[in-house]
Automatic annotation (TrEMBL), chains A, B:
<dbReference type="InterPro" id="IPR036390">
    <property type="entry name" value="WH_DNA-bd_sf"/>
</dbReference>
<feature type="domain" description="HTH marR-type">
    <location>
        <begin position="14"/>
        <end position="148"/>
    </location>
</feature>
<dbReference type="InterPro" id="IPR036388">
    <property type="entry name" value="WH-like_DNA-bd_sf"/>
</dbReference>
<dbReference type="Pfam" id="PF12802">
    <property type="entry name" value="MarR_2"/>
</dbReference>
<dbReference type="InterPro" id="IPR023187">
    <property type="entry name" value="Tscrpt_reg_MarR-type_CS"/>
</dbReference>
<keyword id="KW-0804">Transcription</keyword>
<dbReference type="InterPro" id="IPR039422">
    <property type="entry name" value="MarR/SlyA-like"/>
</dbReference>
<keyword id="KW-0805">Transcription regulation</keyword>
<keyword id="KW-0238">DNA-binding</keyword>
<protein>
    <submittedName>
        <fullName>MarR family transcriptional regulator</fullName>
    </submittedName>
</protein>
<dbReference type="InterPro" id="IPR000835">
    <property type="entry name" value="HTH_MarR-typ"/>
</dbReference>
DNA sequence: TTATGAAACTTCAAGCTTGAAATAATCTTC
DNA sequence: GAAGATTATTTCAAGCTTGAAGTTTCATAA
């Protein structure tokens, strides 16, 4: 997946693009993961879940989290379990539907996330420092249109 | 990591870009993983290792693979172990340095990979279909320059 | 109301991933 | 040539990830 095209032909440019995309995101992701571990003793998946919850003070269902973060249901269960055991989020039983529970950041969780997110934004700025703000905007536009064209198919 | 910026400010555009980049690669990666599983009963990491080996008929050391694929040494050990037990690659002891061994595709491995790679290239072409060849080239250029500026630091 | 089906989660096995510790072989330097 | 450092790799524990199977709860329609 990270190796170059093994042939020439029509799809070649797109394959190159995909490999570049993947290498870039893997490189950045690895660096962020390492810093999260070293500086805050946390992980990327925990950070992702907390970021989602931070933007939804009213809370999210497990399935909301799963859909939003593009990961499986069972996966979210495990991550939330760990965050709960660390006192960073809570699962609140709901009166309406007893199958579900609202997941929310605790006060400590929100405070903790705010600090991590500030550092995180700085890191991303640093790691993408060679991309100008303007170029960043254009790239984002391309990727956005790709996503919105593609998602929701099947 | 997949959620939006939680603040405004200088690094914001780069953070947006990073989130788009990550969502795009995760979406595509998930789709490719699923198809590899369904159509060829294999996985992305196995495919990655085989792709690297396919381009190096003389073989690669474990550490070459690790460096090239951007994953840890211990990780490669496990994946190669599984490929060996499936008869797709071999570990050849070397006379020169008995710490290392050359990893190579078997004949069956090369045949198998060629078939998977053809399908894979088609999938990528399909999944990135909304990006024109020309746009793909430009995007690739941007990502390439980003990578080469950034890698090799520290 | 009571089956029947759908929805929201959890559990589980298998595999991927890292970073740290352990092994083994090679290199360096005195 | 032996001690100490370096290099290549494996092993291991902990956590992430998926997809499938299982559980509980809710919705619906005869």
């Amino acid at each position: 997946m990270v190796a170059g095209p093994t042939s020439t032909g029509p799809g070649k440019e797109r394959l190159r693009l995909w490999i570049r995309l993947l290498r870039a995101s893997r490189t950045i992701e690895a660096e962020l993961r390492e810093r999260l571990k070293k500086e805050f003793d946390t992980t990327l998946p925990r950070f992702d879940v907390m970021a989602a919850l931070y933007r939804s003070p009213e809370g999210m269902l497990m399935s909301d989290l799963s859909r939003f973060l593009l990961v499986s249901n069972g996966n979210v269960t495990g991550i939330v379990d760990r965050l709960v055991s660390e006192g960073l989020v809570t699962r609140a039983r709901r009166n309406g539907d007893r199958r579900t529970s609202m997941v929310r950041l605790t006060e400590e969780g929100a405070k903790s996330f705010a600090a991590i997110a500030a550092a995180h934004e700085g890191w991303v700025g640093e790691l993408l420092g060679t991309v100008s703000e303007d170029e960043a905007r254009r790239l984002t536009g391309m990727l956005k249109s790709f996503r919105s064209n593609w998602e929701g198919r099947e």
